[in-house]
């Protein structure tokens, strides 16, 4: 059975669910959250006797921490609570949790204690959750830095303190958790930008709520379950025509490597035939390492295949622009990458033509390309990647893959997803070209557009994860090493499919 995809809600959505569920929730949500955190903590401390430290903040995240502390106290475990706020100012639920902690005999320290000689069994961050409003500084920042330096497992409650739950930005300083227990549902900031670096292992505790019954999920994580039905075993009676023609266009003088990488990836991902159209008049006529590729002058390749991927190494001169205009005017499904995106960013006529197309368009920008397309700075894109992906999808009426840690997929109708596969080995030249080739191959094999996008993005990262597990990376992982790993994964998934 493939693991189902989990829903993702922004903070506004979580608040809506909480508000709707809270009045009738018995036991109250904070009790459930604190208990769920304690259960998870027990798992983390299985081989670690000794005391645990819980740092509680001034809001309801701190309230969860007090509930958790009470469970450990009542179970006879040594637990130390640090809280530097004013208990009189705690919000209602958190105040009740503090009172219950106090009534159970618990005490709070107003500053972080030094660690016992044997070290803490676990350090718990219950400082700030989804209510973080501004950068952390002063005492709380000092606490977070000190906690981050402790050599023990570190668990965050709901969201690592200092991380923006919507965007994954670090506001001032952020707790670096080895484990995060998040409530009700995933939040985008846990999955993209700096989120994964601060969450460690991420567990969702739904608190017995069916979030979707209160508010349909706006976003989902990318999982093979969403495209797994494309992995049907091939018929014995098959021929290459069944698996389509992938077409990749690019390769201006001096830049033929990029489309060749895409082409090699498309072959390994199962396209029946792969055409690579090259702009360079002196381009090779055969790829001696991969002679299956059919190299063509760029113009000639435009008339082939079901879908065209254009952009790798395309350059930005007049010939490149003319080719791109012709591709956009075609009836093919289009994937625009690299220089195709850079040309699009400065050509309003092209942008207009793109939005008038009937066949689907996929844009695959990295943050700098996204910035050019939205006439913004890369930092502004990264400050809210979800927002940027949605804006691009709307502006160009296209499917968008905003690459980077936690690649975002935005559909033109406003739905979005976040991919969780991949690793820093992918921070290398040519990785984007491979993604484009994968997309071209899945489209050639007539995967529906959304399945092709999710499949390509997930496979791209999963192939890199496979290499990482074998010690091939993160340092020195090469884009040209990815396609073989993609092939292995796709064949494994087809084999699994046969057992359903
Ligand atoms: N509601 C529920 O039913 C449930 C909620 N649950 C839990 O509650 C969490 C959300 O709680 P929350 O809304 O109270 O926000 P929280 O993250 O504790 O922070 C707010 C406090 O921090 C302060 N503050 C903010 N930024 C700051 C900064 N930079 N530096 C310093 N202070 C700063 C802010 O002060 P203010 O901005 O008002 O001055 C306020 O005092 C959620 O993540 C989950 O863990 C669960 O129990 C499930 C049920
Ligand atoms: K926290």
Number of domains: 2
Q: Over all CA atoms, what is the radius of gyration?
A: 26 Å
Q: Catalogue the ligands.
A: ligand NPW, potassium ion
How large is the count of helical segments? 19
Widest sheet: strand order? 1-9-18-17-16-15-14-13-10-11-12
CATH architecture type of the largest domain: 3-Layer(aba) Sandwich
Major sheet characteristics: 11 strands, mixed
Would you count the extended β strands for me? 18
**Class by alpha and beta content:** alpha/beta
Terminus-to-terminus distance: 7 Å
Please name the fourth-level CATH homologous superfamily of the largest domain: Ribokinase
Oligomer: single chain
Low-confidence stretches: none
Provide the CATH topology of the largest domain: UDP-N-acetylmuramoyl-L-alanine:D-glutamate ligase
Any idea what the shape is?
Answer: elongated
Which percent range describes the beta-strand content? 5-15%
Subunit structure: Homotetramer.
Catalytic activity: (6S)-NADPHX + ADP = AMP + phosphate + NADPH + H(+); (6R)-NADPHX = (6S)-NADPHX; (6R)-NADHX = (6S)-NADHX; (6S)-NADHX + ADP = AMP + phosphate + NADH + H(+)
Cofactor: K(+); Mg(2+)
EC number: 4.2.1.136, 5.1.99.6
